[in-house]
């Protein structure tokens, strides 16, 4: 499946799709793998649970209006209103949007990535979003990247987005999917090969004859979950299929053809024949723990959730409706469906397909993230829950001991009917979906900016606390190792989801009490008591979500540096943004030479690429590297990006 080329870069004339978009947005640096580049950003998006911080940061920059071509603020995560907190955040976000010229998507409109793909995506453009699944936009032929809120705020202020030029992996698709096998099975099988860190600092570019057999929403499923490989983003070409999608959205005039040139090469090549694929399933507790459904058939299940930004498009829910028609779900499973957008829901209503879903016994819940991040529908104790989502980290459902399996909508329906994990091919009579009915388009829940001056006061509920102050880096960092973690610690481990904790996203002092809550319940108290200290991590530290709270809350507790075997891209950038040093072991064996509670010390007067860390208890030194650009080093010296901006010491 894999071959590696020696990649010397494509010449000036022949470019792949990634290179075409990057070269037309390059403001700094050169398109050479590993070099720092600055990209101009056309569109930004935020969602509510990362958005409140992003806009507090944007306000601190003192810019009167957003400077992008388009900025959007969605409310889709914190939708349960158990008390005033989420509702206050929604009000704040709406007022900010009105003041700064941002499109506001009201609660109930749908999930940011689904809505963006339907209504705003544009081939050839760049998108930066404060959500790790922003690469969904790559399904239409954009460079769409997830980042921390502070990076989005800077992009809204007109600044470039800086990153290390990724290498470009070409994924050649041949053949076409068999009945009951769908886009989710494509990305699950790639995850099995690549693992949750195989995509770090790579862009996954799809090409080849199999591409035209996939619709834009199917491409979106693949680029969405490419995030789970750690990739910077994923991208498809923009072709006739893309044109049709845009035409059906009443946006045909925004189409632009974007294909790789004839003589391009990629740094790595993966070949995948779609015809060979079978239904796949990710087992607990990692999206790369993939098996064929056939191999785990028969396991009884308690709950099935269909939805999330991975699998809630009209294509997916039409498939669900067709498979459920004239059938009834098993008495021992609960089936929930959360449509990706109002457009999806309204179209299912108008064709009568929603009735097929309801009559089969599904519980239709609000258009939003919901169960995907533990906001409602937490399963029972020890339950087995099958989800069409993209992450199955332990505890993400809201129930710590539940077991989450990730599947396609087809496998979800078959399993709902039989009450156990079932290969969807057992359903027989594969439905032919009618995707050519007239598409209902409803933009009523978007509030578009006007040129009228903003008059209303920006309301900040009592749960919205000002951002903490950040001090410049001292000369010596010293303190105790507060925690030593395993490989692949996710940002969900660092700062969990769930309606309880997510409603504290605008309140750093309160949310910091939950840092590492399920890994080590005493962590936050210990960190405060010891006056902060260090964390030692394994491989891929900080994988998963873009939540900058996973850096900011530890910073608030006094965490000074994290020493890990490797870092996930977005989390490393967030650490730098908030002045925490991300140090990497040069020899991975050295991980064993530090224990929890050891006292460490490091002189950080000069931030060099290679530095010495002293383990005071063990009386030895360990060589660590600081893989940061000079710009990032300047920022960290100032106490992080916001501190640098506030003190106007360095550019951002
Ligand atoms: C997620 O899927 O983990 C989230 C919740 O959407 C996060 C954003 C957040 O934590 O608010 C993400 O993917 O970035
Ligand atoms: Fe929402 Fe889940 Fe998608 Fe994150 S992964 S944006 S929580 S639906």
Key descriptive features of the protein:
652 residues; alpha/beta; Aconitase, domain 3; Aconitase, domain 4; seven-stranded mixed β-barrel; 21 helices; 27% helix; globular; binds alpha-methylisocitric acid; binds iron/sulfur cluster
Provide structural commentary.
This protein has 652 residues and is an alpha/beta fold. Among the domains are: 280-427, Aconitase, domain 3, CATH 3.30.499; 476-497 and 505-642, Aconitase, domain 4 (Alpha-Beta Barrel). It is built from 21 helices and 28 strands. The chain has a seven-stranded mixed beta barrel. Strands 8-7-4-5-6-21 form a six-stranded mixed β-sheet, covered by helices on one side. A hairpin with a 7-residue loop joins strand 2 and strand 3 (36-39). Helix 2 packs across helix 3 (84-100), helix 2 (48-60) packs across helix 5 and helix 10 packs parallel to helix 13 (409-418). The longest helix is centred in the N-terminal third of the chain and has 17 residues, at 84-100. It starts with a strand and ends in a 6-residue tail after the last helix. Mean pLDDT is 96; it is low at 2-8. Residues 77, 111, 131, 133, 308-309, 369, 372-373, 389-390 line the site of iron/sulfur cluster. Alpha-methylisocitric acid (MIC) is lined by residues 49-50, 77, 131-133, 373, 497, 544-547.
């Amino acid at each position: 499946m894999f071959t590696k080329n020696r990649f010397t870069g494509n010449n000036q004339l022949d470019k792949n799709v990634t290179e075409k978009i990057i070269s037309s947005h390059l403001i700094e640096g050169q398109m050479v793998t590993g070099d720092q580049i600055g990209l101009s950003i056309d569109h930004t998006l935020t969602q509510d649970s990362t958005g409140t911080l992003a806009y507090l940061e944007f306000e601190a920059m003192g810019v009167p209006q957003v400077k992008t071509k388009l900025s959007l603020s969605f409310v889709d995560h914190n939708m349960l209103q158990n008390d005033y907190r989420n509702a206050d955040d929604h009000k704040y976000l709406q007022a900010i949007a009105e003041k700064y010229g941002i499109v506001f998507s009201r609660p109930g409109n749908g999930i940011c990535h689904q809505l963006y793909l339907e209504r705003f995506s544009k081939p050839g453009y760049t998108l930066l979003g404060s959500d790790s699944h922003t690469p969904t936009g790559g399904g239409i032929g954009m460079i769409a990247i997830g980042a921390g809120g502070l990076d989005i705020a800077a992009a809204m202020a007109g600044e470039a987005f800086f990153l290390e030029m990724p290498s470009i992996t070409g994924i050649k698709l041949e053949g076409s999917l068999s009945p009951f096998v769908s886009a989710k099975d494509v990305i699950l099988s790639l995850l099995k090969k690549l693992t949750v860190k195989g995509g770090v600092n790579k862009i996954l570019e799809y090409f080849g004859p199999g591409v035209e057999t996939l619709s834009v929403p199917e491409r979106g499923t693949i680029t969405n979950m490419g995030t789970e490989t750690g990739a910077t983003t994923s991208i498809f070409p923009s072709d006739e299929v893309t044109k049709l999608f845009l035409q059906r959205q009443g946006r045909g005039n925004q189409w632009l053809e974007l294909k790789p040139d004839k003589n391009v090469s990629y740094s790595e090549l993966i070949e995948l024949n779609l015809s060979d694929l079978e239904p796949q399933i990710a087992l607990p507790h990692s999206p790369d723990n993939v098996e064929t459904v056939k191999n785990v058939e028969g396991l009884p299940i308690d709950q099935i959730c269909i939805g999330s930004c991975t699998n809630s498009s009209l294509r997916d829910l039409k498939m669900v409706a067709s498979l459920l028609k004239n059938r009834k779900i098993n008495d021992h499973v609960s089936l929930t469906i959360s449509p990706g957008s109002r457009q999806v829901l309204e179209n299912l209503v108008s064709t009568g397909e929603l009735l097929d879903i309801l009559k089969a016994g599904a519980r239709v819940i609000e258009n939003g993230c919901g169960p995907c991040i533990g906001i409602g529908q937490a399963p029972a104790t020890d339950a087995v829950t099958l989800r069409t989502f993209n992450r199955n980290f332990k505890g993400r459902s809201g129930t710590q001991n539940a077991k989450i399996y990730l599947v396609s909508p087809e496998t979800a329906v078959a399993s709902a009917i039989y009450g156990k994990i079932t290969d969807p091919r057992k359903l027989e009579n594969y439905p032919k979906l009618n995707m050519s009915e007239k598409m209902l388009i409803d933009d009523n829940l978007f509030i578009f900016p006007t040129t009228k001056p903003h008059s209303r006061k920006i309301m900040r509920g009592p749960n919205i606390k000002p951002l903490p102050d950040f001090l410049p880096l001292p000369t010596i960092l010293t303190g105790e190792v507060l925690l030593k973690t395993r490989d692949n610690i996710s940002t969900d481990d660092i700062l969990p989801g769930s309606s309880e904790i997510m409603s504290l996203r605008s309140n750093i002092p309160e949310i910091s009490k939950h840092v590492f809550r399920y890994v080590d319940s005493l962590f936050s108290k210990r960190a405060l008591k010891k006056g902060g200290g260090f964390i030692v991590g394994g491989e891929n530290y900080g994988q998963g979500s873009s939540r900058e709270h996973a850096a900011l809350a530890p910073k608030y507790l006094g965490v000074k540096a994290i020493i890990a075997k490797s870092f996930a891209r977005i989390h490393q950038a967030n650490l730098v943004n908030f002045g925490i040093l991300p140090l990497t072991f040069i020899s991975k064996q050295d991980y064993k030479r530090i224990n929890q509670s050891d006292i460490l010390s490091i002189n950080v007067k000069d931030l060099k690429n290679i530095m010495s860390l002293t383990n005071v208890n063990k009386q030895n030194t360990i060589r660590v590297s600081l893989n940061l650009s000079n710009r990032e080093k300047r920022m960290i010296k100032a106490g992080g990006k916001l501190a640098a901006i506030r003190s106007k010491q360095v550019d951002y």
